[in-house]
Amino acid sequence: MIDVYTWPTPNGHKVHIMLEECGLEHNIHGINIRKGDQFSNDFLKISPNNRIPAIVDQVGPGGAPYSLFESGAILIYLAEKTGKFLPAEVRARHDTLQWLMFQMGNVGPMFGQAHHFRNYAAEKMEYSIERYTNESGRLYRIMDKHLGENEYLAGDEYTIADIATFPWSRGPERRGQDIELLPNVKRWIETIQARPAVAKALTVLEEHQSKPTDVIDEETRSIMFGAKQFENR
Ligand SMILES: N[C@@H](CCC(=O)N[C@@H](CS)C(=O)NCC(=O)O)C(=O)O
Q1: Among the atoms of ligand 1, which is closest to the Cα of residue 223?
Q2: Is 155 helix (H, G, I), strand (E, B) or coil?
Q3: How confident is the model at residue 212 (pLDDT cuts 50, 70, 90)?
Q4: Architecture of 90-195 per CATH?
Q5: Using a 6 Å CB cutoff, which residues line ligand 1?
C-alpha cells in the first residue's frame, strides 16, 4: 500500500497517473497547499521542501516503509518498483530520463512562473509576464518539433517522461500559447488524455482543482508566496 500526500496540481497529477497506470493500491491524503497543510511538522518529515507530492511506500525496499518527495524521483521509484514505463534497454532508458529531466528542470519551473506572473501575482509586471510566456512558447515549440518526429517524448513508447510532462502541458492557453500552432503537442495531449488511467487520475481531489479565474485571497497569497512561505522552519 502506498500513501500519497498530494493536491490536484500538475506535480500531484504525475503521481496520480503513475499509480493508476501501474494499478498500485494507494491511499490519497489531501494536503491543501492553499491553507498551509504543507507546513505541518508531520508533512515536513516526509517532504522537507514543503511541496506536494510525497509518498510513503508501506512496503518499501527491504520490506520496510520508505518515504520520498520530488515528483521525478517518485516516478523513477515507482517505475523501478513495477518494471513499468521506464524501458530497460540502455538508450531508451536514458532517452526517458533525459526528457524527464527536461520536464523537471524546464517545463515545470518555467510554466509555473508563467502561471504565477500571468495569473497569481498581485502586481501585473509586463517584463516577467513576457519573459515566462516567451520561455513557455520556446519549450512548447521544442516539444512540438520533437513530437513531430516521435510518437512519445522518449520515442515509440509511453514512459514516465510523458507522465511527468502531460499534466503541465495540457491547457497551453494558461501560458499564453495557441494549441493550434502546436499540432504535434495537440496530438500527443489528446492521445494521453484518452488513456483510462489518465482520465481516472485527473479526478483525484478534482473538487479542489484551481481554475484560471480563481481569485487569491490575502491569506492564501501569504501561504503560497509571502511571509508564511518564507518563515524559517
Ligand atoms: N520539484 C517539485 C515541485 C513540487 C511543487 O512545486 N509542488 C507545489 C504544487 S504543484 C507545492 O506543493 N506548492 C506548495 C507551496 O508552494 O508551499 C516536484 O516536482 O515534486
Answers
A1: 17
A2: strand
A3: confident
A4: Up-down Bundle (1.20)
A5: 9-11, 33, 38, 50-53, 70-72, 108, 224, 229
